[in-house]
Amino acid sequence: MKTDDLIDMLASGPDVAAAAPPGAHWRAASTLGTGLLASVALMAMLLGVRPNLEQLVMLPDFWIKVGFVVCVCLAAWHVSRRLCLPGAQTRALPLLIAMPLLLMWALGAIIVQEAPPEQRAELFWGATWRSCPLLIAMLSLPILAAVLRLMRQLAPTRLRLAGAAAGFAAGAMAALVYCLHCPELAASFVGFWYVLGMLVPTAIGGAIGPKVLAW
Asked: pLDDT tens digits for 152-169?
């Protein structure tokens, strides 16, 4: 039997139990922690923490933004982990990613619709739309390297999809780091420009996944 045939059989066999190898959780924590700390250090050196962060954290909109990004992070990480386990069920994964996005888009649409016409453009474009996606993408690079390194220690079989999932997870975690610097709070801004920033490392991960994650 060829290696590719064996991989296909393991990935599609109904009796295969999806389980992470021993020690995988500790390796994940260590690897992700290193990438996340590198992203925080990059943000602190190049951008800096928002001077009025103490005032921002008192606002409900700030916690809506953070809550949204955290939910996307958790969903993206779960998707990435499942794609590294041959035999894992993946049918519900798109819905898991879509749920926080749809909720944020719905909230943003409601806020824009209820705002006075002269304020609607500002709620969507904000003051940092030109830099926001690029900065999130930049901050995601050390996290993306960490997630891909972790994936190489596991057993992804759909390499392009796994690479894209790694990129989306890295982008979501980078967006969480970027919250410490970003002044924007509008749900319509966060739901579009933050997600656009997450999609940049998603595309990078999908492009390099087949090469980086090959067994």
From this structure: 887 788 899 999 999 999
